[in-house]
Amino acid sequence: MRHAGGVCTGRWKTGRKVAGALCTSLLMMAPGSAGAAEETPPVQTVAAVELERYLGKWYEIARFPMFFQRNCVGDVTADYSLREDGRIRVLNRCRTDKGFDEAEGTARVVEDSGGAKLRVSFFWPFSGDYWIIGLAPDYRWAVVGDPERKYLWILSRTPAMPLDVLEKARQAARDQGYDLGGLRYTEQRLD
């Protein structure tokens, strides 16, 4: 069975009908295919972010599990500060079973994004999307994601969030099509 684009290629020696049905089913579920279910609209960022107000320390309240945070057991923070070259210094910190771990990187604001899209790099030349998809008017909480809905963080200026405020942040993520079933809450020990 062959399919344009190389999605389903190769020769099947056994189970051609089953393999063909499986391949057809997979193609129908693919975004943009004729038989696909209702498409989720693209992720949208907030309209604008005032960088000076966004800089500073943020506490991670919840996140989708991430490989690079696999050793973090709590006390996760992100600290953003402006560098002399106009880029943003990113300092992520978390508690592990063996102490604390830090990762330092840089971010740049994506042009014409109103400051709501950044590209973050911890290891040049690789970088990732950092999209601010929810933000409190007073900059007390933020929801950060990416265009493919693989990543999600709920951040707060304080180590704890009242439940009603947390629900606003969660709703901002749901409004962007995020399924929160995989959301994990972060233990923050109050200093």
From TrEMBL:
Alphabetized PROSITE patterns for the sequence: LIPOCALIN
Keywords: Cell outer membrane, Lipid-binding, Lipoprotein, Membrane, Signal
Location of the protein in the cell: Cell outer membrane
InterPro entries: Calycin, Lipocalin_ApoD, Lipocalin_bac, Lipocalin_Blc-like_dom, Lipocalin_CS, Lipocln_cytosolic_FA-bd_dom
Biological process terms in GO annotation: response to stress
Domain of life the protein comes from: Bacteria
One function term, GO molecular function aspect: lipid binding
SUPFAM superfamilies: Lipocalins
Keyword Membrane: yes
Endpoints of the signal sequence: 1-36
UniProt GO cellular component terms: cell outer membrane
Domain Lipocalin/cytosolic fatty-acid binding: 49-188
Keyword Glycoprotein recorded: no
Reported function: Involved in the storage or transport of lipids necessary for membrane maintenance under stressful conditions. Displays a binding preference for lysophospholipids.
Family: Belongs to the calycin superfamily. Lipocalin family.
Subunit and interaction comment: Homodimer.
Protein name stated in the entry: Outer membrane lipoprotein Blc
Species of the source: Azoarcus indigens
